[in-house]
Design brief:
6 helices
Length: 214
């Protein structure tokens, strides 16, 4: 079943990266080169939202004004991909926070569910607590989730399982870094699930955060 979910994720991620490739800069510019342009600069990604966090509080995009946002879409009942991605992302964030506490504190990590039917605040609270003490888990009505997913060019759909409540959610495997104004900066590196043991993944996330967070 994991392979079915992976197909849509990889296609969407690849399409987005290719469509924005023209805006990307060289990975290793010369030391005297001008500051790199964020790969997603000018992309139409992001927008206003009103959701509910794991404590039952209403959360709006405006609550993060002046903060960078690390945003990942997934769901807590995901058997493999989401936990692995979150571990890499949050370990990378923790590594960056340790190296540069001042800049690290400027980043708000957000997990937005694509499975609002099961991901109630009560379900999200223990899930996000596993990964980072500041990680916010956000849910909402099906319409609210559909709207925020569309704004972030994230697609998702239900994959039926062996029972009505044992379904999977195929979704785009994307992690966004947004600037303090809510504009997109870059996609954070997420390796293929087959490389779960890649100990270098958090290093890559931390390096990307160090590149763009001022």
């Amino acid at each position: 079943m994991m392979n079915i979910a992976n197909i849509g994720q990889k296609l969407v991620r690849a399409s987005l990266i290719l469509s924005l490739g023209a805006m990307a800069t060289a990975c290793n510019p010369p030391a005297d080169a001008p500051a790199a342009t964020p790969p997603l600069e000018g992309a139409r990604i992001g927008g206003p939202f009103t959701l509910t966090d794991q404590n039952g509080n209403t959360v709006r995009d405006t609550d993060f004004a002046g903060q960078y946002r690390l945003i990942y879409f997934g769901y807590s009942f995901c058997p493999d991909i989401c936990p692995v991605d979150l571990q890499k992302l949050m370990r990378g964030l923790a590594q960056f926070e340790k190296a540069d506490p001042a800049r690290g504190a400027k980043i708000a990590p957000l997990f937005i569910t694509v499975d609002p039917a099961r991901d109630t605040p009560e379900a999200l609270k223990p899930f996000v607590a596993r990964y980072h003490p500041r990680l916010l888990g956000l849910t909402g009505t099906p319409d609210q989730i559909a709207a925020v997913a569309k704004a972030y060019v994230v697609t998702y759909h239900k994959v039926d399982g062996s029972a009505p409540d044992r379904y999977l959610m195929a979704h785009s495997q994307l992690a966004f870094l947004m600037d303090p104004a809510g504009k997109p900066l870059a996609l954070l590196p997420l390796d293929d699930p087959s490389t779960d043991a890649d100990e270098g993944a958090p290093d890559k996330v931390a390096a990307e955060l160090a590149k763009w967070v001022k």
